[in-house]
From TrEMBL:
Organism: Desulfatitalea alkaliphila
Family: Belongs to the class I-like SAM-binding methyltransferase superfamily. rRNA adenine N(6)-methyltransferase family. RsmA subfamily.
A GO CC term attached to the entry: cytosol
PROSITE patterns (UniProt xref): RRNA_A_DIMETH
The protein's enzyme class: transferase
Protein name (record): Ribosomal RNA small subunit methyltransferase A
Compartment(s) where it occurs, according to its Swiss-Prot or TrEMBL record: Cytoplasm
Amino acid sequence: MTSPRTLLKAWNLLARKELGQNFLTEPTLAAQIVDLAGIGPDEAVLEIGAGLGALTIAAARRAGRIIAVEKDTQLAPLLRAELLANGLEQVTVLEQNIFTLDLPRLADEMGQPLTVMGNLPYNISSQVLVKLIHERRAVRRAILMFQKELGDRLCAPPGSKTYGRLSVMLQYCADITVLRTVRPELFFPKPKVDSVVLAIDFKTAIHPPVGDEALLEQVVQAAFGQRRKTLRNALAGGLLPLDNAAALQVLQTARIDPRRRAETLTVAEFVALTDVLEGHLAT
């Protein structure tokens, strides 16, 4: 693997800060991530933001099929050249925005659920996770690199200051494992913070399942949107069709103290609260 600095200079390109581009500089690290992820020859891999191909090359040596998505049309020809130089002609490069990609359709075309990989720019990490949660029936698992601050939030337990909306929604539908941390000096350009690689395994069965997942999202958003307030006041804050009295009734029926705050609720308690609210709205 040619160094990112050398590659970009040879192609007269610069890393684009507005796209959050920080490229892995160490091929052994990319190979280690693929090893830790347990990528195998029977898997169909979708890589988000393939960049200069560090993860792409490592994964392509192990996986059966790879779709590499790269939004930056200036980088895509360079990526294709690097893949060709490494004899990896089986990789398909899509010059596309990940948010316009239909994952269920792609999984149908591949004949199996996808394994998603990527070194995610911080400015789109949350949106990518939301997309994967919504389209998870097309995704078996994801191995993603985040800024450590966001990774810590995703893994945070109830009661912690970093536990929030994404923590609840991801933990509801997936098991999360920390694979390793990555120091800033292993990227070019060098970011200011550590990164972390997470394995996200989407559950085939959720216990307990919520009746209305879209409503669960609304409840979680309302609760954490005003996280300094008590749950009673947060739920009656305008995002949900509840006044103060109705919010109190729903919380009491769900056996949740209305004086508690959002960060103290477990995922199961959010599910119970949502199911009670669904019944209340139906009457």
